[in-house]
């Protein structure tokens, strides 16, 4: 094999490698961005929670705005702050759309997450974020109508106290207080903001 | 004569392996800055085991925290749960990368308020009796090394 033949075969090998790689790479245009559309016709059922300022948080607070809800607890050091930091980044990317969007952290651990703790927690991520919780009866009404699963003390152990198993998704409620979509974990702030802007502007 | 030189060179190459500590490394450690008053913080890092034997991380402690444990977050059918691990193995000639959404070190009851830019020291204990002491930078999620966005 002379030098020219060798160079040619190397070139062919490189081209072939590129073609194979391109074939197996995910196609961005077909990406569903981790969003599952639900577009329910029915409004979320009655529930009454309290926000970090001890004000009533019920279905009326969901009407007239798009709402992003994340369910968690403040003693959760990994997945909850990751989702909250994502919401903070979504908020930063939404610009003017934030006038008709609200961001809500729902604590599933009312025993430990008092309104004062929720105020510190949500305020740390963004002063505009809302933190709500309430008795398990009222929390159950909201979680059941959205299909959110949670269970206290089902996992963890060790000396870190109990953990709460909970849905990892971020739920999108439309301005008629109906479940519209959910974003599965791990969420991507940039893609979420794009999806939300196109939904809210349509 | 050349053979003797070869043996000497071989010895020089193999010599460091007599020190077990050089076979186990931890790096890229960071602690997630938490909201004020938080009682638990997560730490993430990479542990490399260049030795021929599996190593098992069994404990973590820090002078800035009253306690530390190894935890793993699992997401199954859309539900996240957290489990306490008594040990985490690092295979021979392998590595373990601890990143958000998976295995993490759970640091409990901070002795001082930690802000992004602060540093803490982490002490890792292994089943083999080895220990590693490494610095970890306190960071916000969005500026962390393994944050892809």
What is the structure about, briefly put?
The complex is a heterodimer of chains A (202) and B (149). Chain A has helices at residues 3-24, 79-94, 115-125, 136-146, 189-201, and strands at residues 35-37, 49-51, 56-57, 66-72, 101-107, 130-133, 150-156, 162-167, 170-173, 179-183.
Structure description:
Chain A has helices at residues 3-24, 79-94, 115-125, 136-146, 189-201; strands at residues 35-37, 49-51, 56-57, 66-72, 101-107, 130-133, 150-156, 162-167, 170-173, 179-183. Chain A has 202 residues and is α+β, with helices and mostly antiparallel strands. The termini of chain A are far apart. Chain A is elongated and about 80 Å long. Chain B has 149 residues and is mainly β. Chain B has one helix spanning 2-14, and strands spanning 24-32, 40-49, 55-61, 65-76, 79-85, 88-90, 94-97, 103-110, 119-126, 131-139. In chain B, strands 1, 2, 3, 4, 5, 6, 7, 8, 9 and 10 form a ten-stranded mixed sheet that branches. The longest helix of chain B is centred in the N-terminal third of the chain and has 13 residues, at 2-14. Chain B starts with a helix and ends in a 10-residue tail after the last strand. Residues 16-20 of chain B have low confidence and may be disordered. Chains A and B meet through helix 2, helix 3, strand 7 and strand 8 of A and strand 2, strand 4, strand 5 and strand 8 of B.
């Amino acid at each position: 094999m002379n030098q020219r033949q060798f160079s040619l075969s190397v070139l062919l090998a490189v081209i072939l490698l590129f073609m194979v790689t391109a074939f197996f790479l995910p196609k961005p245009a077909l990406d569903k961005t981790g969003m599952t559309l639900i577009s329910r016709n029915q409004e979320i059922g009655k529930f009454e929670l309290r926000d970090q300022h001890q004000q009533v948080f019920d279905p009326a607070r969901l009407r007239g705005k798009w709402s992003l809800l994340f369910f968690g607890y403040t003693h959760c050091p990994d997945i909850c702050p990751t989702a909250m930091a994502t919401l903070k980044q979504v908020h930063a990317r939404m610009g003017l759309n934030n006038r008709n969007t609200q961001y809500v952290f729902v604590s599933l651990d009312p025993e430990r997450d008092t309104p004062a703790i929720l105020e510190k927690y949500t305020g740390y991520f963004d002063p505009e974020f809302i933190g709500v919780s309430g008795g398990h009866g009222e929390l159950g009404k909201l979680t059941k109508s959205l299909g959110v699963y949670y269970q206290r003390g089902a996992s963890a152990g060790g000396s870190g106290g109990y953990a709460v198993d909970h849905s990892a998704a971020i739920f999108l409620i439309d301005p008629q207080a109906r479940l519209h979509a959910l974003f599965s974990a791990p969420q991507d702030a940039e893609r979420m903001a794009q999806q939300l802007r196109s939904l809210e502007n349509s | 004569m050349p053979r003797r030189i070869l043996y000497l060179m071989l010895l020089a190459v193999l010599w460091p392996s007599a020190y077990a500590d050089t076979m186990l490394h931890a790096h890229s450690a960071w602690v997630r800055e938490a909201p004020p008053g938080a009682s638990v913080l997560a730490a993430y890092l990479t542990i490399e085991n260049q030795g021929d034997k599996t190593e098992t991380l069994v404990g973590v402690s820090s002078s800035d925290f009253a306690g530390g444990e190894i935890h793993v977050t699992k997401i199954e059918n859309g539900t996240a749960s957290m489990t306490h691990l008594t040990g985490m193995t690092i295979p021979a000639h392998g590595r373990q990368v601890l990143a958000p959404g998976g295995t993490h070190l759970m640091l409990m009851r901070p002795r001082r308020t930690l802000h992004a830019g602060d540093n803490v020291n982490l002490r890792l204990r292994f089943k083999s009796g080895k220990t590693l002491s490494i610095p970890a930078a306190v960071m916000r999620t969005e500026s962390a090394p393994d944050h892809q966005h």
